[in-house]
Specification:
38% of the residues lie in helices and 21% in strands. It is α/β, with parallel strands linked by helices. A seven-stranded mixed sheet has the order 14-15-16-13-12-17-18, sandwiched between helices. Strands 9-8-7-10-11-19 form a six-stranded mixed sheet, sandwiched between helices. Strands 1-4-5 form a three-stranded antiparallel sheet, with no helix packed on it. Strand 2 and strand 3 (42-44) form a beta hairpin. The protein is globular and about 70 Å long.
C-alpha cells in the first residue's frame, strides 16, 4: 500500500452520502476514485489516499481514503452515542434489518462478485460463492437474533436461593471493533457486522488495507436497511488506525480475523484494558486419510479444499496425512485434480483458480515450495510460472520443511505418509495451530478416536479441513485463537448474560 496527500474532495462525494457506497461505484473503471471512508454511516473523504494494484489486473489501481486518529475518535464517539438506540431495537427489528441486507446483497450478487475479484484476485466463480455465503450468513444472523433468549436459573435448588426465582437476559456488550483479513472481505465483515447487529452493538469496521471496497459497500446496505447510521463506520488504514480502534476507551469488544502474530498483539493490548476479544487466527490445517478411506472422495475434497479461493483461506487444506499404503495413490489423484484446474484471468467465468493477493505473496509461496523440494519433497505438479502460483502438490517433504509448520495461504498442499494413527495424530497436532481438521475413514472407531485426539476447534468426518457451514460455531485453539464465530455463537460473544433474581 502506498500513501499520498490529496487535499481536494472528489466531486462524486459532494452529493448524497449513499451514492459512493453503491458497489457499482467500486468495480473496475469505477467512477468513485478514490473510494471514501464511512464515518457514522456517511461517506467521507480525507486528506490522505492509499493505493494498491488489483491482483486481478495489475494495470488497475485501487485508490481509497484512509483514516487518522481524529476520525477514529469521531467514529467511536458516534458509535458510543448510538449504544442506547441500538440496545432498544427489538429482536424483530434487528432480524428485519439483517433480512433486508441479505435481500439487497443477493440482488447485487454479480456486481459484488466483480468487486471481490477486483480487490482479492480470486476467480469470479469463487467470488460469487463468497457473496452467496454472505447472504446465507446474514439470514442465519437474522434467525439467531430473533431467537436470542435467556434461561431460567434454579436458584431455589440451593439453600441460599430459597424463596427466590431467577432468569437471565442477554444485553449488548457495547461498541465493537471488528478487524478483518483480506481473503474474504465481504464474508468476514458480514460475520462480524451481522453478529453486532444481531446483538444490538454499534460497530467500527476495519477492512484489510488491501481490500476495502466490499466492506464499504456493506456499510451502505446496513444504513439503507435501517441500522442507525451513527452505529457503523468503516475505517481504512494501517496498523496505527487498527491500534487506535482497539484501544479506544468506548470499545468493549474486539473481533479480529488475521494472522497469529497480529492477533497476539491485539490480545495483549485489549487484555491490558480489560476488553473482551474474539480471535480467529492462522492455521496449518491437516486432513487425515486412513487406509480404509474412500480415496476418490478424499482426493476430490482435498484438492478442492486446497485450491478454492486460490488457497487463501485459514482452513485451506495444507497438509494431507495419508496412510503409507495409499499415500502415493492419493497424492497422484490429488495432483490429477489440481492439474485439471483452469488457471487464468480471474474475471473469466471459466477460470477455476485466480491469483494470490500480491507479488510479495507469490515470492513467499515460491520460496516455500522451493524449501519443500530442498527438503526432499516431490513436486508432483505446480510451482510458480510467469508470476502466477499454479495449483501445487508436494509429496513427502521432510518433517522439518517449512510447509509443515507455517501457514502457506496459497494453492499449495503437501501429502505426508504415516504408519500409525498415533504418528498421524502427533504430526497433525505438532504445529502451534489448531483451527479445523478433516478425517476420511469408513471406520466409526477410527473416526471417534481421531475426533477426540485432534487438538482443533472442529473435526470433519469424511470431509476435509476446509469445510465450513457459516451457521455453525467456528473457532480454534492454541495459536488459532479463541472465541467462536458463526452468527448464533458470535451474537452471544457480543452480548452480556445478565442474571435477574426475584425474592418472593
Amino acid at each position: 500500500m502506498t500513501l499520498a496527500a490529496e487535499s481536494a474532495t472528489p466531486a462524486s462525494l459532494s452529493g448524497a452520502s449513499e451514492a459512493p457506497l453503491d458497489p457499482r461505484h467500486f468495480v473496475r473503471g469505477a467512477p468513485v476514485d478514490p473510494a471514501p471512508l464511512v464515518v457514522a454511516g456517511v461517506a467521507r473523504a480525507t486528506g490522505t489516499v492509499a493505493e494498491v494494484r488489483s491482483p486481478a489486473d495489475h494495470t488497475d489501481v485501487i485508490r481509497f481514503h484512509v483514516a487518522d486518529a481524529d476520525l477514529v475518535d469521531a467514529a467511536a464517539a458516534a458509535a458510543d452515542s448510538a449504544r442506547a438506540r441500538c440496545a432498544r431495537l427489538d429482536r424483530a427489528d434487528r432480524a428485519r434489518i439483517l433480512e433486508s441486507m441479505a435481500a439487497a446483497v443477493d440482488r447485487d450478487r454479480e456486481v459484488l462478485a466483480a468487486v471481490l475479484t477486483r480487490e482479492v484476485g480470486k476467480a469470479l466463480r469463487d467470488s460469487l460463492g463468497e457473496v452467496d455465503r454472505a447472504v446465507a450468513t446474514l439470514r442465519a444472523a437474522a434467525h439467531a437474533a430473533a431467537g436470542l433468549a435467556g434461561r431460567e436459573i434454579p436458584v431455589d435448588a440451593v439453600p441460599s436461593g430459597r424463596g427466590r426465582r431467577a432468569h437471565t437476559v442477554w444485553e449488548p456488550v457495547g461498541v465493537v471493533t471488528a478487524i478483518c483479513g483480506f481473503n474474504f472481505p465481504l464474508l468476514l465483515a458480514v460475520h462480524k457486522l451481522g453478529a453486532a447487529i444481531g446483538a444490538g452493538c454499534p460497530v467500527l469496521l476495519k477492512p484489510s488495507d488491501r481490500t476495502p471496497l466490499a466492506t464499504l459497500a456493506l456499510a451502505g446496505y446496513a444504513v439503507r436497511a435501517g441500522w442507525p447510521p451513527a452505529a457503523i463506520s468503516v475505517l481504512c488504514g494501517d496498523g496505527a488506525v487498527g491500534a487506535r480502534m482497539v484501544e479506544h476507551p468506548v470499545v468493549r469488544l474486539v473481533s479480529f480475523t488475521g494472522s497469529t502474530a497480529v492477533g497476539g498483539r491485539i490480545a495483549a493490548a485489549a487484555g491490558g484494558l480489560l476488553k473482551r476479544t474474539v480471535l480467529e487466527l492462522g492455521s496449518n490445517t491437516a486432513t487425515l486419510v486412513a487406509a480404509d478411506a474412500d480415496l476418490d472422495l478424499a482426493a476430490c475434497r482435498c484438492a478442492s479444499g486446497a485450491m478454492v479461493s486460490s488457497g487463501q483461506s485459514c482452513i485451506s487444506v495444507q497438509r494431507v496425512l495419508a496412510h503409507r499404503s495409499i499415500a502415493a495413490e492419493l497424492a497422484a489423484a490429488i495432483a490429477g485434480h489440481a492439474r485439471a484446474l483452469r488457471v487464468g484471468d480471474p474475471y473469466d467465468p471459466g477460470t477455476e483458480l485466480g491469483r494470490v493477493i500480491s507479488p510479495e505473496a507469490v515470492a513467499r509461496l515460491g520460496a516455500l515450495i522451493d524449501d519443500a523440494v530442498e527438503h526432499g519433497a516431490q513436486l508432483l505438479t505446480g510451482g510458480v510460472r510467469d508470476s502466477t502460483v499454479l495449483p501445487t502438490v508436494l509429496f513427502d517433504p521432510a518433517a522439518d520443511a517449512q510447509i509443515g509448520h507455517i501457514e502457506a495461504f496459497g494453492p499449495v498442499v503437501a501429502i505426508y505418509p504415516f504408519d500409525s494413527l498415533d504418528e498421524a495424530v502427533a504430526t497433525a497436532n505438532g504445529p502451534e495451530f489448531g483451527l479445523m481438521a478433516g478425517v476420511f475413514t469408513r471406520s466409526l472407531e477410527t473416526a471417534t478416536v481421531l475426533a477426540e485426539a485432534l487438538e482443533t476447534g472442529g473435526v470433519h468426518i469424511n470431509d476435509c479441513a476446509n469445510f465450513r457451514a457459516d451457521n455453525m460455531p467456528y473457532g480454534g485453539v492454541k495459536g488459532s485463537g479463541y472465541g467462536k464465530e458463526g452468527p448464533a455463537s458470535a451474537i452471544r460473544e457480543m452480548s452480556v448474560e445478565k442474571v435477574v433474581t426475584w425474592h418472593r
